[in-house]
Amino acid sequence: MWRMAFDIGGTFTDFVLAGVGEAPRFLKVASTPNDPSVAVIAGFEQLLTDAGISASSISTVLHATTVATNAIIERKGRPTALVTTAGFRDVLLIGRQKRYETYDLYMDKPPPLVARRNVLEVTERVGPNGEIETPIDLASLNAMVDSLAESDIESVAVSLLHAYANPTHERVIKDALHARLPNLLVSLSSTISPKFREYERTSTTVANAYVRPIVADYISQLQSTLSERGVENEMFIMQSAGGLISTAIAIEEPIRIVESGPAAGVLMSALVGTESGEKSIITFDMGGTTAKLGAVDDGIPAITPTFEVDPIRYRPGSGLPINVPAIELLEIGAGGGSIARAEFGVIHIGPESAGADPGPICYGLGGQRTTITDANLVLGYLNPDFFNAGAMQLDVHAAKTGVERDIGQPLHLEVDRAAWGIHAAANANMEKAMRIVSVERGRDPRQFSLVAFGGAGPVHAARLAKSIGIPKVIVPFGAGVGSAIGLLRAEPKIDASITRVLEIVPESHSSIADIYLKLKQQADHDLRRLGVDAAPNWFRYGYLRYQGQGYEIRVDLPLVSINSDYPDGVCRAFHDAYARNYGYHDPLATIEAVDWHLVATLKTPEASLDLGWRAPGESSDSLNNRQVWFPENANFVNTTIYDRRNLGENHLIDGPAIVEDPEATIVIPPAMSATVSSQGHIIIDTGVNP
Q1: Whole-angstrom Cα distance, residue 450 to residue 562?
Q2: Overall number of domains in the chain
Q3: How buried is 588 (Cβ within 10 angstroms: 0-12 exposed, 13-18 middle, 19+ buried)?
Q4: CATH number of the domain that 568 lies in?
Q5: Residues forming a β-bridge with 330
Q6: Is residue 461 part of a domain?
Q7: Residue 225 and residue 176 share a domain
Q8: CA–CA separation, 113 vs 126, rounded Å?
Q9: DSSP state, residue 535
Q10: DSSP bridge pairs for 660
Q11: Are both 178 and 231 inside the same structural domain?
Q12: In the prediction, which pLDDT does 16 show?
């Protein structure tokens, strides 16, 4: 039994091939942005050749992708329309009153994915409790269908007022559209995001419709290509909330996979933290295009009920709201390929990236603008002869020329100080983001460890951790392909949710039972579509608040029979969660629930496949030495270079030192030290007192 996982990034596509009793095989190949499947097939065939197996030997293919995210950010979706209740045509334009820049008179709200001319109205009205106040008007319904029939629209979002409480009218519209336009893709808010708050629900449904044709074409083509190569089984895809879903679900509800790749990395970090005895983790994934930060609390990845795509400078309310559960992440334009420039006497980093084509200057593929990778090469952090296991030869002279031209000359700096300025400016951007994920969200960095992965993450991790007060950095085995490893350790997962505003009193147990009966029916339907023959494990959670509050907190709910005692258990769980978040609770206040969730995960034997580290027969000393620039010395220092593959358990490394992995590079600054754990992870002591 062999399993293949691949994660397509903006610069590199990462692969892991794992088999029973076999050491895992890792690979990074340059991404092909114009057609991601080209890089996938190239890496796929290379690993099969290296392992000496055929494609028919692959039992499972697992995939993380940014195709949906990129389509939204770059506004490259297909022509899309929105159908809504008469009088609510401008829900997306109005958005929320909240301003992400209070004093900016020229602040722009995120532009909707649908042009106003493509927003169509149907006369109907459903009340907040599901009562039909105005039956659907057939004349307006037919006029809407006629209008779409005469357009080039490929996908339609239907989001009617209070459809989460009663989806009847949305289903009538879907039937009418399919009767006249059978090839039209229709997304219903009552299916995609059956929750209240009209703006967020409509935005989510529109985003689903906007990327649905692109995701459908992409997945279908990739699945077909793999089948032609001899892969006999269906591909599974990572979803934003963690866990795997089938291609059928991903094609119909692509909004579930918007944060696909980063979610896999956070899952991997949670497992690495548990193996290392650490349950409080800040995750740091720095690749070639972006840096992504997340959190693991008490061994469980933090989940947010809603997130934003393409926010501006980390500002809440500046991006497009997506009202589906997702692993809590913060993404910034600070990857190895992020472009550095001098403006107004200071260094700016990103968010524009050189990506895979043409890439940084040092790649020698036509890149003309200085990047973080170029700076790290000039500083001596990267080995020009061993980048990506030696598959790429880096041009040090070209990198120095670019750094001097773009940063050194405008700012009157020597080339080494200019390169350090780029590195430090990138760290400053990431440090700010890390403070948002930790301090601003109630997490004390001194009580957390940092798990660093991605090709560039371990280069910057130790200094970042020290600057924010994190005492320990864990660089996991296989760090350079961390998200792909997370895919192999993930389990199939289904999350069913619905909005039902309900006061939690003893008499509410029958309503709660009815809610979870409907959610289980929905989850069972999706589980059948997964096609996995395994018994699910069930989890319940909800979003609750004190009556009168505007927003809710997540509460894990008891997984017991729902009887007259169940509301008391819900109240106790809420009080405990509220006290953890805010330091107090009000035992006399009335509690109400807003959103209800039911989660099913399937434990499969493949998810426990051995991906472990194989210790070398004998731990060896350093590979060699080279000159590396450290600010503590304000100069280049003769630095010990280690080959990670030769380091055995408990091997001690004193900084300054560089540890070279085939897929990543680890920088251990002066006054820090590192050891190799029994799982092959490198543990860096930053010198911070917890």
Answers
A1: 40
A2: 3
A3: exposed
A4: 3.30.1490
A5: 293
A6: no
A7: no
A8: 25
A9: P
A10: 643, 665
A11: no
A12: 93
End-to-end CA distance of the chain: 44
Domain hosting residue 587, numbered range:
493-603
Q: How far apart are CA 658 and CA 640, in angstroms?
A: 6
Residue 473 clears pLDDT 60, i.e. is over it: yes
- Domain-located, residue 347: no
**In-domain check, residue 128:** yes
Residue type, 416: D
pLDDT tens per residue, range 293-334: 999 998 989 988 888 887 776 677 888 999 988 999 888 878
- 176: DSSP letter: H
Residue 608 clears pLDDT 60, i.e. is over it: no
Pair 167, 52 in one domain: no
Position of tokens 């750094």? 403
Instruction: Output the pTM of the full model.
Output: 0.89
Q: Where are the beta strands (DSSP E) in 313-390?
A: 320-322, 326-327, 329-332, 338-343, 346-353
Is 38 in the same domain as 133? no
**Nearest CA-CA partner of 488 in 14, 10, 11:** 14
pLDDT band at 11 (very low <50, low <70, confident <90, very high): confident
Which CATH number does the domain housing residue 31 bear? 3.30.420.40
- CA dist 676 and 668 (Å) reads 13
Q: Cα 620 to chain center, whole Å?
A: 37
Going by C-alpha positions, the residue among 42, 465, 45 that lies closest to residue 231 is 45
- What are the helix and strand counts (H, E) for the chain? 17, 35
What's the one-letter identity of residue 435? R
> Which among 228, 249, 270 is the end of a domain?
249
**What CA–CA distance (Å, rounded) separates 447 from 469?**
9
The C-alpha atoms of residue 497 and residue 193 are separated, in whole angstroms, by: 8
Looking at 169-178, 259-268, 587-596, which range is the least confident one? 259-268
Identity at 71, one-letter amino acid code: A
- Among 118, 122, 107, 117, residue whose Cα is nearest residue 160: 122
- Closest C-alpha among 622, 680, 681 to residue 655: 622
Q: Name the band, by pLDDT with cuts 50, 70 and 90, for residue 613.
A: confident
Residue 412 inside a domain? The answer is no
Last residue of a domain, one of 603, 625, 652: 603
Question: In angstroms, rounded to a whole number, what is the distance separating the alpha carbons of residues 11 and 283?
Answer: 20
Q: Are residues 7 and 120 in the same domain?
A: no
Residue 303 contacts by C-beta under 8 Å, 6 or more apart in sequence?
Answer: 241, 242, 325, 326, 327, 328, 554
What distance in Å separates the CA atoms of residue 449 and residue 684, rounded to the nearest whole number? Answer: 10
